[in-house]
From TrEMBL, chains A, B:
It comes from Trujillonella endophytica. It comes from the Bacteria. GO terms for cellular component: plasma membrane. The lineage of its organism: Bacteria, Bacillati, Actinomycetota, Actinomycetes, Geodermatophilales. InterPro entries: NAD(P)-bd_dom_sf, NpdG, P5C_Rdtase_cat_N, STEAP_metalloreductase. Residues 12-113 form the Pyrroline-5-carboxylate reductase catalytic N-terminal domain. This is Pyrroline-5-carboxylate reductase catalytic N-terminal domain-containing protein. One of its GO terms (molecular function) is cupric reductase (NADH) activity.
């Protein structure tokens, strides 16, 4: 629970934290001073990666960084707010196991249901409509928010560029939770959390990542999204 | 057919040109010097609106503007490139009638299949996947491109601001056609056409408009989209 605490006081768990997206988010948030619990199926691997992230964040800022690794279930139980950054293939199975430790918490889903073939990326159909809605269906006692879909893992990890260029589209049905996640996004220099609608409109936010893959191929870029006039 | 001609030489038809989106695109393109044929179910109404648009474009630029109105079918037959800006409700029926006049042409679909209820905007399911894919299915001899989904009609019509702030995401399967539509988008000052993938990834580009509706409500804005790092 966030319990009305300011976002910078929250311990943020990152499930799937040893993958590119999870690692990138963890190192950026740790660099911004956020305390991080890094989760993985393999607790030992999580500790190892957490140590590397803590070192990199400390080197970038000159301050100590708090990044600790553990098994996904332990991280889910200990964190105040939990980011789900696992591949879509393992999404439902993981969340089904974490209903209790995630109860009452803000759960931030940044999973993009995508496949790849010879024509590039395409969008996978999710029976619930989107990964975020699947999470909400599986976690009835959590506050599920969709966010952090469009951030290039490459750019997140590249601390030589202290500022990123992009908005985080935040979708969800609970105002306090979307406000909190917007504030969390805003802790990363150059980024901004923008409220972008209810959970029923999560699908296209997730799916837009397939278009960004095409943009990246065509322009040899690490594309992100900005919302104009806001 | 564009016949390899430069985009500024093409006569652009706008079907549904008397609606807010069509009118806004028409006045911006006319202001940029594009010759426009404005289509409507009601040819007389189209002529009337075309006259107003021509006057406004001429007043904004000091140059004569070429904007002529007509029935949708006549416009479809006479234009070199055709923008479809009708409400989704009439989309399939209109295109079914225009298979022949649109054959061989680049058809730019900017239709957003959306509904509204007490919670705001939501996305309508389209059997073909998206409005653009529906157009491609109905117009097998045309080159269908999806584009111009995220431009605020209010900002398009407001010529007191000569420059707009936003990218036009262009999706399609034919490179020459997407290149042409990108060039057309780039004729509007401040806008840029960005290739954003194949037609199978059109759905989320169209659907993102529902999220922009939520952004507009929350921030009292006329939101658009920019792609970063491109």
């Amino acid at each position: 629970m966030s319990d009305g605490r300011a976002v910078e006081e929250l311990v943020v768990g990152v499930l799937g934290g040893t993958g590119p997206q999870g690692r990138g988010l963890a190192v950026r948030l740790a660099t911004a001073g956020q305390r991080i619990l890094l989760g993985s199926r393999d607790a030992e691997r999580a500790s190892e990666v957490a140590g590397q992230i803590a070192e990199r964040a400390a080197a970038a800022t000159g301050n100590e960084a708090s990044v600790t690794g553990g098994a996904n279930a332990d991280v889910a139980g200990a964190a105040d707010l939990v980011i789900v950054a696992v591949p879509f293939g393992g999404h439902a199975d993981l969340l089904r196991e974490l209903v209790e430790p995630l109860a009452g918490k803000v759960v931030v889903d940044c999973v993009n249901p995508m496949g790849f073939d010879e024509l590039g990326a395409y969008v996978l159909d999710v029976p619930e409509g989107s990964a975020a809605q699947q999470a909400a269906a599986l976690l009835p006692d959590s506050h599920v928010v969709g966010a952090f879909h469009h951030l290039s893992a490459v750019l997140l990890e590249d601390l030589s560029k202290p500022t990123l260029d992009g908005d985080v589209l935040v979708v969800g049905d609970d105002r306090a939770s979307t406000d909190l996640v917007q504030a969390l996004a805003g802790r990363i220099p150059g980024m901004r959390g923008v409220y972008a609608g209810r959970l029923r409109n999560a699908r296209q936010v997730e799916a837009l990542t397939a278009n960004l893959v095409s943009v990246n191929r065509r322009y040899k870029a690490h594309a992100g999204v900005r919302i104009t006039d806001v």
